[in-house]
Amino acid sequence: MNYKKIGGILGKIMILEGLLMIAPLIVSVIYKEGFTNMMAFLVPVVLLVVLGGLLQLPKPERNNLYQKEGFALTALAWIVMALFGAIPFTVNGDIPNYADAFFEIMSGFTTTGASIIADITTVSYSGLFWRSFSHWIGGMGILVFVLIFIPESDDGSSMHLLRAESPGPQVGKIASKMKATVSILYLIYLGLTILEIVMLMLDEPIAGYENDRFFFSLLATFGCAGTGGFGFIPGSMELFHPFSQYVMATFLVLFGCNFGLYYLILIGKIKEVLKSEELRTYFIMIACAVGFIFLSLMGKFEAFGQVYNAEEAFRHSYFQVASIITTTGYSTTDFNLWPMLGKTTLVVIMFIGAMAGSTAGGMKMSRIVIALKGAYINVRTLINPRYVPKVKFEGKTLDTKTINDVFAFITLYLFILLGVVFLLAFDSVNGQIITVVSDAGTHEVSHGFFSNFSAALACISNIGPGFEAVGPYSSYLNYSVFSKIILSFTMLVGRLEILPVLILFNRRTWKRI
Asked: Which residues 6+ apart lie within 8 Å of 212 measured at CB?
């Protein structure tokens, strides 16, 4: 294990996190939040820069990283970032309990959006900014950004880091040089971010929050870009005007697309984009899900005296499908009260997620397509042993290893999900009655199996809200510290797609070579 090299890169990441914390520090100064709030960010900034600098002092004997080292470094970096990123919330009193603060910022960096904050109005402006900004940071990946500053090598070290942090079964470069690839990805990411902010600013400000128009547009965009979903006003996105809700839903769909396709559009290869099998499946899935939910909401549906008209039913259907399939978790209404068809549709797309190479979580559309094709081939082979199997995806024939890797990922994903549900069953919160205040009124729900199942699914798929006691108008506050730690690492497992975390905690990983 190349400890010195790992320490050096980890030091760069810590320095970068310290520099990124200057942004919420500036927000604290702008809103005149006081000495304590400013020190809440200044102290970790100094700690991160100093410790990060010290980690870079030892000179490594070799500069390359093996694959296991790249994967372990990636998981370790995200844990370190969360450990330091939680400090401001505890110091300024936004989240006094450090375990809760760790859960919150891990949820932010992993773009999950699950929160333990029951009353969002008690959080400072700088705290709101740091929560949402962590989505934008984690969306593309912190190590992907650091690759810009690491000298490029020919041994594949940079590619190991990219594969460990980028979602999807197949990860590669879109340009000949790794730095060029990363720069292109971030420019596309930044461009879409700026465009959404501009579009949201065209709408009327939210009543009662007229002075926060730009600030809220910024936070909403951070959540959409990173497909994170932290709410920053009561009711998540409920108070935004319909125009803004349509804008956010559309950009959620765009951020759920493979960023490599945007590069193809920029260089004029639009025909190749239109040929994308995963893209077609993605849009078909969205259209079908919106259609099912719309029909269920236009039926005899009434939740606590609330009835949707056609436009409202379509808008809520479109928004929630866009939010859930991209694993964002924003909400415009309490979908926990929807008819069974609507809720079941959301659960199904919770598993699937958006496209590989996007900022979304979940299993990814590409894996689902490959798995279905692989299963079909297996059935054909059983029927006709002479049949020569050939699985094609995006016009390319997939090798057996890629197909087996997809099946292995789905198997691990499901076993981890069931394991987390089992561990949550030990929590004392089970059986308790939780009061929920939503746009449909006040009602009570029981914290039971479906609450735990949806919480585990929402965390491993990086969605955020689940159903029943952890629905869109509830929080994860009632869980014990043990459950919150389990769920925190479940988010990390989901964001890094399992293997980096498993490799980090395997004792063989840390043996010297």
From this structure: 205, 206
